[in-house]
Design goal:
The chain has 290 residues and is mainly β. The chain folds into two domains: 71 residues, no CATH class; 207 residues, Alpha-Beta Complex (Fumarylacetoacetate hydrolase, domain 2). The protein has six helices and 19 strands. The strands form three sheets. Strands 1, 2, 3, 4, 5, 6, 7, 8, 11, 12, 14 and 17 form a twelve-stranded mixed β-sheet that branches. A five-stranded mixed β-sheet has the order 9-19-18-15-16, with no helix packed on it. Strands 10-13 form a two-stranded antiparallel ribbon. The protein starts with a strand and ends with a strand.
């Protein structure tokens, strides 16, 4: 299934179920069944909602709407935690002058840094060094602590695309990357949550690209993760409890803008796309802070 979060004409939060990858239509879940939660977080947190939604996919009475013109909002608009991995591809570590790490470079994002599919990513007033990072994201489906390699994938609700937009000068103002990763509306997230049954186990072997104004900037594959989905979950949950709706961002490959000669940064009027095989294309225009 492919689920997405959007806002209706009355600014109410809703969840849609894409009918097919290229159909251009979706099922309005709340209009089809008013008993269903109207946020993706509540759907993920429910023990029965996902199976019920799967049954609605073939319901002839389902309320069908066109996806054209939908106002997307971030899949999980207020996740409790957004845990990010840095240096999860050896080639990206090398282009940044880092040796192959022995442990992931974990950092956190805040919810106010998120931006939905088709909504602008905002270049802030204080910096013009706004860089792109194509990343696979996954959303946690159940409360998880001390997971093992045998059970970790049972806790994944689904996968999506993420653009870990980074202000490179601010990222380097301290030894911690957090400040450069948390400007408002810099992290693109979407367009939909793809349930694990639609993808290879652990989302392995998926091509991942970033395209800036149509030009391929990054082109890699999730098979090249240094720490895959399973190992990532094991490492995080030996430290903290993950909860339904928490988001984990899995790192970016080589080809980012700051490492190019000359550097390439996103600017107003640009469009950045993150394309992950089997997941979808996350697209965002770039705008300056008002």
């Amino acid at each position: 299934m492919r689920l997405f979060s959007y806002q209706d004409s009355n600014k109410n939060k809703r969840v849609g179920l894409l009918r097919a990858k290229d159909s251009g239509e979706f099922i309005d879940l709340s209009a089809t069944d008013a008993s269903l939660p109207n946020t993706l977080l509540d759907i993920i947190s429910s023990t029965h909602a996902m199976s019920h939604i799967a049954a609605l996919a073939n319901n002839p009475a389902a309320v069908i709407k066109p996806i054209q013109g939908v106002k997307f909002i971030p899949l999980v608009d207020r996740p409790g935690k957004i845990v990010c991995l840095g240096l999860n591809y050896a080639d990206h570590a090398a282009e940044g002058g880092h040796s192959r790490p022995e442990y992931p470079a974990f950092f956190m994002r805040g919810p106010s840094s998120l931006a939905a599919h088709q909504q602008p990513l905002i270049r802030p007033k204080v910096s013009d060094k706004f860089d792109y990072e194509a990343e696979l994201a996954f959303v946690v489906g159940k409360t998880a602590r001390h997971l093992t390699t045998a059970n970790a994938l049972e806790y994944v609700a689904g996968y999506s695309a993420f653009n870990d937009g980074s202000l490179r000068d601010y990222q380097r103002k301290s030894s911690q990357w957090t400040i450069g990763k948390n400007f408002d509306a810099t992290g693109g997230f979407g367009p939909w949550l793809v349930t694990p049954d639609e993808l290879p186990p652990a989302a392995d072997g998926l091509r991942i690209q970033s395209r800036l104004n149509g030009q391929i900037m990054q082109d890699a594959n999730t098979k090249n993760f240094l720490w895959g989905i399973v190992e990532t979950l094991v490492l995080i949950t030996e430290c903290m409890t993950l909860e339904p709706g928490d988001v984990v961002i899995t790192g970016t490959p080589a080809g980012v803008g700051y490492a190019r000669k000359p550097p390439v940064f996103m600017k107003p009027g640009d469009t950045i796309e993150i394309d992950i095989e089997g997941v979808g294309v996350l697209s965002n225009p770039i705008a300056d802070e008002a």
